[in-house]
Amino acid sequence: MRVAIPVHPVDEKLPLPRLIPLAVQHVLVMYAGAVAVPLIVGRALRLSPEDVAFLISADLFACGLATLVQCYGVAWSGIRLPVMMGVTFASLGPILSMAAAPEVGLLGIFGSVIAAGIFGILVAPFVSRLLPFFPPVVTGTIILVIGISLMRVGINWAGGGQPTMTRMVDGAPGAFPNPNYGQLQGLGIALFVLVTILCLLKWGQGFVKNVAVLLGIVAGSVLAASLGLMHFEKVGTAGWFDVVMPFHFGVPQFHLIPIVTMCIVMVVVMIESLGMFLALGEMTGKRITQDDLTRGLRADGVGTFLGGIFNTFPYTSFSQNVGLVGVTGVRSRWVTVAGGVIMLILGLLPKMAALVEAVPQVVLGGAGLVMFGMVAATGARILTAVDFKTNSGNLFVVAVSVGFGMIPLVAPSFFKNLPHDLHPLMESGILLAAIVAVVLNAFFNGLESAEEAAAKAASAAATADHA
């Protein structure tokens, strides 16, 4: 008589009537964050609405691919835990700096993403050894600076774009005040979205509370459409089905400084993923080995490499979906496998991307204040696990690192006299904060053992996801 081998809850295959709603929930929880980066980058580069819609489709498609690699797994990649992959906000600051450099542009961004993906694949077995360089005081500071840096984007969205706009006058570009910036109607819509989200977070229950940001955007879009501020012509002309082709915008270009910058971002992202994997292992009751961590980190590299090929950006495990595992108690990775398939399908529906692109900036602004503020709050929560009372050196690590991170925000021309090739690196407050935090932590605190660092990373990630 055969003895049935018990299946771990992570590998349990759920019936379709239960599997599909749970997968849709994972997609909805991450959807607003997933489409935010291509929206921001596309509008920063002043791409046409059609091109922005394509970036969104490409992002959704690549999200699905990266998720399947991570949670379904291939021979040498994927941690096979309930993980949803999405574009990391940590890459947004450097990407926007590259977008502002005419010699880099979109093709240079894609080239740096491809190179960073290859770099991530190669260094995955060694990244866990870097964990002692990134204790909670460092990762919390970096994530805090990411959120603060992104708030500028959310605030300008709420205002209706950039305060100034560029127009050609007599063949030369000139800067002029944006007449639509700060108009009361737009500010009112942004406030309405913000209040709607906050009300749903306070009084919503379960699933409604989990998708409060998405519901706030939908409510704001309905209000904007009723006021004649949201237009659907592009949605009507968009096709029902299209294939996301690699290298849609042309052959990627490779520039040294952007590549180095993106590789540094990749290391930061992989360290963050390491903490999330360890926390997820504790949440699901699955023992995580060194080989598992290597496979998971390698999947971050594979996802980023695929992102560059399919016209999008670096990928990482989304922390809100890790938190959802804790909230629902559903540990099966097949739920996120189904979620990855749904993301693939959404990426092949241009009408969906065109609808997202049609959402006015003021609507996104109200949601952006919440989304980007939550990134900063996550960093602050991680820092609550740091000993500031008996170790004053940690205070200086945070204080000086945040100060360096603010330089590009408050004084954009601070580094103007440095060599031009260094500008994409020095104009990223996130990378400045990361470098300074690592150096100061080593100076004040030295380096812990890998085991101590892993325990602290798991504790900090669990705190961030459950708080």
Automatic annotation (TrEMBL):
Belongs to the nucleobase:cation symporter-2 (NCS2) (TC 2.A.40) family. The keyword Transport applies. It comes from the Bacteria. It is found in: Cell membrane. The lineage of its organism: Bacteria, Pseudomonadati, Pseudomonadota, Alphaproteobacteria, Acetobacterales. The keyword Membrane applies. This is Purine permease. Keywords: Cell membrane, Membrane, Transmembrane, Transmembrane helix, Transport. The chain crosses the membrane at residues 20-41, 53-74, 106-126, 133-155, 184-204, 211-232, 252-280, 334-356, 362-383, 395-415, 430-447. PANTHER family: PURINE PERMEASE C1399.01C-RELATED, URIC ACID TRANSPORTER UACT. One of its GO terms (molecular function) is xanthine transmembrane transporter activity. InterPro entries: NCS2 (IPR006043), UacT-like (IPR017588), Xan_ur_permease (IPR006042). GO terms for cellular component: plasma membrane. It is a multi-pass membrane protein.
